[in-house]
Amino acid sequence: MSETTKEGLLEALQERREKSMEVGQVDNASLYAGSPMYYYCKHCGVQVAVKPEDWYEDPPPSTCADCQELLDKGWHDGEKPEFPLWTGPAGRIPNLVDE
Ligand SMILES: [Zn+2]
Predict the structure, then answer these.
(1) What is the pLDDT of residue 75?
(2) Ramachandran sector of residue 75 (left: φ over 0; alpha: ψ -120 to 50; beta: rest)
(3) Is-above-0.90 flag for pTM?
(4) Residues having C-beta closer than 5 Å to ion ligand 1
């Protein structure tokens, strides 16, 4: 199945959600002062940005590029699942964003 079919993209969306359910999301408020802030796609929970705490420029996107593509095509289910919080040590927070 091609990655660009509706089915393929929706399958990839489910896979991103399952991964996010496993990994969890950082509660920025729980981090010590000066910690970077972690931003996540509201639809699938993947990290979309990691910014310094004092970042006040363009707000990071609230949707990842893959979900945005689905939204643009009108294929996204539009759901915004609740993802669990990251519970690992603060020093081990995965940074999944290439910047
Ligand atoms: Zn997404």
Answers:
(1) 96
(2) alpha
(3) no
(4) 41, 43-44, 64, 67
